[in-house]
């Protein structure tokens, strides 16, 4: 009875409305996971937490992951850790209170399996850009100059390539009747 009452109370926000997935930081992994997934392995949703909109998918996780953090007490805390990390593209939280942060990678993907009970994949709907591709502030003039220099270099390369192609078409191919090594004295 007390356990049912506790779970019922955990399912309510302070305003008395039904809690959503990322609004809980109860510290009880199973209760937080149940708020997100309600026993439905195929459940997913979209929610705003601290001004950031997230998609979440039950029975799912992200691969690859390069940071594993124990004692992360809720899906919200896991999502926040990813949001605050410049190198995190997405995260996965497990109801055993583990958070897995995934880096920006070309092979980043979400994996789903109906038997993956307890897993929750989290991704911002307006994802951050990979810090390696974001120029620092005040670099616009430098970037414009680099792009102009790149275009000049590519134009020169193409010009010399055309010259080389035309030169090779106009030059006769010399075929030796006798290999050079055969004409050399021993």
TrEMBL record:
Signal peptide: 1-19
Entry coiled-coil feature ranges: 143-170
UniProt keyword list: Coiled coil, Signal
Pfam families from the UniProt entry: PAN_1
UniProt superkingdom: Eukaryota
Domain Apple: 65-110
Keyword Nuclease in record: no
Gene3D superfamilies: Hepatocyte Growth Factor
Protein's recorded name: Apple domain-containing protein
Species the sequence originates in: Aspergillus mulundensis
Phylogenetic lineage: Eukaryota, Fungi, Dikarya, Ascomycota, Pezizomycotina
